[in-house]
């Protein structure tokens, strides 16, 4: 049975080159990320937004604007349709009248990575790909291992040796071939590139294939639906590779073309750690691309990405939306995570805590007004970072070995 997808082709994000959909693709001929395009005008005549409520309570309720053609190829562990929480007490503390958090930590494998990997692995099944490899700061590797296991696909995961223990444990338990690398995600990417040709892996690196972004854009589709098709005034997003922010920006454009929302957009706010802020520096320098950030270091492992392939797309969305890019310290990250937990009963990943710290700064500076509707994305569960919290509280952290 077909999904009803309106996919038409793939498009280079910089040159506009068109490539055929339904074929195995990584980057464009010029070496840039590919974006999936749909016949949204035709779809607008066939798809009514009110009918979405009849769909499954997962991200696959938006199948017409996802790339999988046949339902039998969908690999799902019930990802997406995550809850929105009104942060009443914390909002009062930070002088925000309309503060919300979307909790991606309740996804399978406890992070937002499940969305992108579900879509990418589904396309691997549809395209007949049997071996996949990924460099990861941690959570994407765990998600890949889980979805590859569900699909019966062989997975190779390369992650820094000092990732949170949960990421290593889950990847090994799901049956992936896990290699711990001395260095950062960029060093892991080199290992994937070296083995891609000799081992026959399909490279699922961030934005080096077109489909993880499609899964992650559903965070924006869901927020629009959950807010009654009225987008918030500002969105805070913890930005490592930045695919979630890029995907949401794409989602809002597609929703407008469908006629489901107007032209209003949230101010997109990219949040990074002071120990690894390449996109913040590029934003401050009015540059189109970021520079590789040397000696990156932060307890928020998902933010420890020294150079994002899609940095120009993140910067474009931030600037077009009237948003900003801001960095916060590790101390601010942990204190804000703790404050959120004590105020609202939500145990978030350090990346989510970084957004709370950034909000505090931007409210203090006057960048955001008290009455604006603000949406924060928490990208993972705090339970995946027990070793980080162990260090913070002075308790012996977990250890791991290959």
* Tally of separate helices: 14
The N- to C-terminal Cα distance equals 42 Å
CATH first level of the domain at 84-111 and 212-392: Alpha Beta
Q: What's the alpha carbon Rg, rounded to whole Å?
A: 20 Å
Q: Into which percent range does the helicity of residues fall?
A: 25-40%
Low confidence ranges: none
Mean pLDDT over the residues: 96
Shape: globular
Q: Give, in spatial order, the strands making up the sheet with the most strands.
A: 4-5-13-10-11-12
How can the largest sheet be summarized?
6 strands, mixed
Kindly state the number of beta strands. Answer: 13
CATH topology of the domain at 84-111 and 212-392: Rossmann fold
Broad structural category: alpha/beta
Beta-strand content: 15-25%
Please provide the ordered H/E string of secondary-structure elements: EEEHEHEHEHEHEHEHHEHEHHEHHEH
The second-level CATH architecture of the domain at 84-111 and 212-392 is 3-Layer(aba) Sandwich
Task: Please tell me about this protein's structure.
This protein is an alpha/beta fold and 402 residues long. 38% of the residues lie in helices and 16% in strands. The chain has a six-stranded mixed β-sheet, sandwiched between helices. β1 and β2 form a beta hairpin. The radius of gyration is 20 Å and the shape is globular. The mean pLDDT is 96.
Keywords summarizing the entry:
Rossmann fold; 14 helices; 402 residues
Brief sketch in words of this structure:
With about 400 residues, this protein is α/β, with parallel strands linked by helices.
Which helices and strands, and how do they pair?
Blueprint: E1 7-12, E2 18-20, E3 34-38, H1 40-46, E4 84-86, H2 88-94, E5 98-103, H3 113-127, E6 131-135, H4 139-151, E7 154-160, H5 165-173, E8 177-181, H6 185-199, E9 202-203, H7 212-216, H8 218-226, E10 234-238, H9 243-258, E11 267-273, H10 278-284, H11 311-320, E12 324-328, H12 330-344, H13 350-365, E13 373-378, H14 386-393
Parallel strand pairs: 5-13, 6-7, 6-9, 7-8, 10-11, 10-13, 11-12
Antiparallel strand pairs: 1-2, 1-3, 4-5
